[in-house]
Amino acid sequence: MEVPGQARDGDTTFTTRFAPSPTGPLHLGHAYSAILAHDMARAAGGRFLLRMEDTDLDRCRPDYEAGIVEDLTWLGLSWDGPIHRQSEHIAGYNARLEPLATRGLLYPCSCTRSDIRAALSAPQEGVQHNVYPGICRGRPMETRLPGDALRLDLAAALEALAGADLGFTETGPAHQGRHRVEPDTAMRDIGDVVLSRKGEDIVAYFLASAFDDADQRISHVIRGEDLFAFTPVQVILQHLLGLPTPVYHHHRLIRDEAGKRLAKRDDARALAKFRAEGASPQDIRRMVGL
Ligand code: GLU
Q1: d(C-alpha 48, C-alpha 39), whole Å
Q2: What pLDDT, in 10s, does the model give residues 72-85?
């Protein structure tokens, strides 16, 4: 049976998605991202899908999802097929990690944030401070306790991928071209990332999103420039899990007058507020430079 909005094997239709986390109201930055992805898909005669990245059950709320749907509809955007909710697939994401555990590429980790901070000596200006220092690396999977996270052993993963073409094509304005994931850079900037957290039943955003981009046959990932830095993690995971790598298009961010990136808490720029004040969808397009 043909499912609306879902591609068939061998299908090369341009397919993209808008993938908000329903943790607050949409603001102008989301509007730009959604409109851009929608318009690019429609211009290419392709598909535009809507995905809720709602694995953080503490922060995501159904009323935020309802608000997102209302805002997108008001903007005049339509998506193909039903909304995909990550929260409905968490057991599946975790099950699909199993082969990586079997290959010895994962380890359990019980470190708290303060353990990690204490182990990171003299962090330097400009260096990412969140690279895990490897305290639990080498722990066997059998020692996993309730509440332990699962981390990727990045050095082992890169070794397993030696010789693979770890790269991606970027079509966004700031980084256009072909990019290679360099093992040394990945070790320095990414490290042993958390892929899943037991007890809390959380899977990391870049894991769930790598699975979904493959399952939903996303040919082009269109998203904010702030996520460019996460792309190498996703490319590494795609190779480990046998998933295809889509084309990436990281777009400029909408900033406030002070040049700061808009955040969910910027209620002053929430779409619902502009709408209540009588703005039209065309006004929103103009405000974000479309
Ligand atoms: N859920 C992410 C966000 O709200 C978007 C992730 C993506 O587009 O890959 O920023």
Answers
A1: 9
A2: 999 999 999 999 99
Residue 261 has pLDDT above 90, yes or no: no
- Domain 8-287 has what CATH class? alpha beta
Asked if residue 119 has pLDDT above 80, the reply is no
Please give all residues whose beta carbon lies within 6 A of any atom in ligand 1, as ranges: 19-21, 53, 209, 221, 223, 227
d(CA 221, CA 162) in angstroms, rounded, equals 26
Model confidence at 5: pLDDT above 50: no
Q: How confident is the model at residue 203 (pLDDT cuts 50, 70, 90)?
A: confident
- Scanning the structure block, which residue is given the tokens 């306790």? 145
Alpha helices (runs of H) in 127-280, residue ranges in sequence order: 154-160, 183-189, 198-201, 205-215, 231-241, 271-276
Tokens encoding 245: 């790598």
Residue 45 CA, chain-centre distance (Å), reads 24
Among 15, 33, 48, 53, the mutation site with the greatest number of ligand 1 atoms within 8 A of its Cβ is 53
Relative to beta strand 149-152, strand 106-109 is antiparallel
Residue nearest to atom 2 of ligand 1 (CA): 20
The residue assigned the tokens 């353990």 is 115
Task: Give the per-residue pLDDT at 200.
Answer: 57
- Record the tokens describing residue 201, joined without a space: 């039943």
Name every residue whose Cβ is closer than 8 Å to that of residue 201 and which is 6 or more positions away in sequence. Answer: 57, 90
Nearest Cα neighbor of 153 from 118, 121, 186 is 186
* CA–CA dist 102, 113 (Å, integer): 27
Report pTM.
0.90
**144 contacts 153 by C-beta, under 8 angstroms:** no
As a whole number of angstroms, the distance between CA 171 and CA 64 comes to 31
C-alpha distance across the termini of the chain, in Å: 38
Atom of ligand 1 nearest to the CA of 18: 8
Pairing label, strands 167-170, 177-180: antiparallel
